[in-house]
Amino acid sequence: MKRETVKTIAGLVIITAIVVATFLYGNAQRQAQQNQDKNVAKQTASVSPSTSAKATPRPSVKPTPSAPPTPAKLGGSGAGSVAGAEAMPATGPSTMPILGAGMIGVLYILYRCSRLQVSHRR
């Protein structure tokens, strides 16, 4: 193999690795958000107001905020809320690897055609 071919193949491998890593990271973030939304939904479902007369009052403790509140904590209807988690479309990298591989294949074919045209001109 020629040096140019090795460089081209190495570049394609690096680009492919970056694309795959990006989609894997995005999918992990989406799943983490869905799990967080499920946990918030479970916590709100398990915490119910006590109506019995025997209930002891809880001491008031101020939580220390470590991060800004999300829409789920604020009770909003954004993507972080429980209702938003149910309405989220099922998106992800299901078709993107195929599209990426197809683009790489087309680029490889174009590269080979251009190399053949250069070699025929000599």
Topology of this protein?
Layout: H1 3-46, H2 71-74, H3 82-87, H4 96-121
Helix pairs in contact: 1-4
Write out key terms for the chains shown:
4 helices, mainly alpha, rod-shaped, 122 residues
Please state the overall shape, judged from the principal axes of the Cα atoms.
rod-shaped
The average pLDDT value, as a whole number, equals: 75
The number of helices is 4
The major pleated sheet works out as: none
Distance between the termini: 19 Å
> Structural class of the helix and strand makeup?
mainly alpha
Unreliable stretches covering 5 or more consecutive residues:
73-81
Helix % is: 55-70%
Strand portion: under 5%
Radius of gyration: 26 Å
Folded structure, characterized:
The chain is mainly alpha-helical. The chain has four helices and no strands. The protein has helices spanning 3-46, 71-74, 82-87, 96-121. Helix 1 (3-46) packs antiparallel against helix 4. The two termini are 19 Å apart. The relative contact order is 0.12. Mean pLDDT is 75; it is low at 73-81.
In short:
The chain is mainly alpha-helical and 122 residues long.
